[in-house]
From TrEMBL:
Protein name stated in the entry: biotin--[biotin carboxyl-carrier protein] ligase
Origin: domain of life: Bacteria
EC number(s) on file: 6.3.4.15
Keywords from the named record: ATP-binding, Biotin, Ligase, Nucleotide-binding
Amino acid sequence: MLPDQAAIAAAVRGTRWYDVAVVPSTGSTNADLADGVRAGDEPGRVLIADVQTAGRGRHLRPWSAPAGTQLSISVTVAVPAAAAPRAGWLSLVTGVAAVRAVREETGVEAGLKWPNDVLLSAVPGKRGGKAAGILSELATDPHGGLVAVIGTGLNTTLAAADVPVETATSLLLAGAEDPDRTALAIAYLRHLDAGLTTWASDPAAARSEYLDVCVTVGQRVTVSLPGDETLVGTAVDVDVEGRIVVADDDGLRHVLSAGDVTHLRPART
C-alpha cells in the first residue's frame, strides 16, 4: 500500500509543505523536483515514490529498494541569500528530522553518522546499521533564486536478503514491528519544517540539535580521502560550517567537508 497522500497533506497543512504528491514509481524524486524548480515551481513541494528506478546517493552511488520497503521522499526548500553560505547544513538538519521521526514513530534508537547517515542501534537478535541516506542538491529557479532539493531514502521493511551491503539495515530488521510509512512521512516533514526554521533563524541552535544526535563525535574513525589517502584519528567536533573535525594521533586537527571524504567509518580496534 502506498503512503496515504491525503493524510500526509492534511497533517502538514500550515507548514511550508503546500503540495504533497505520492506516486507508484519514478526515476528519481530529486530529479523530478529539480526539474520543477527550473520550470518555476514554488519551493515547498513534497514528492514520495514507492519505487525509484534511478535513485542516487552521495558520490552518485545508486540507491534503490523493492516496492513497499522504503520511504523515498524529496522536498524543495527556498535558500535565502543570507543563508546561502550555510546551505551545506541543510542535509545535516534533514538528518536530525529523520532521526527524530524514527525515534518518535518506531521506538528504535537512532543516531547520525556524520554527515547524515541514519544509523539504527544494534540490539540482541536484531540488525543495526545504516537505514537511511540523504542527498541535498541545489537548483536555480527561472528568477535566479536558489532552491535546495533534499531527498531521503529510509529503509522501512527491507528484508535481509535485499539489504545492499552488510552495514545496512531497515526499521523492520532493527526491531520495529510494523513501520508505517504514512506516519513516518508525517513526523519527518513536521520535524524537518521545524528544523529548517531553526536553521534559518538560529544556526547555533541547529548545530546544537545536530550534535545531540550525532554518534560520530567522540568516536575513533578511519577517513578515506581522495587519492587513496587515509586518516585515522578521533572525531572531536562538527564545526559551524558542518565540517567534521578529526584529531590525528599527533594532535593535529583536520577539518573536512563532506565533499572531501569518500568514506568515514569507526576505526578498527
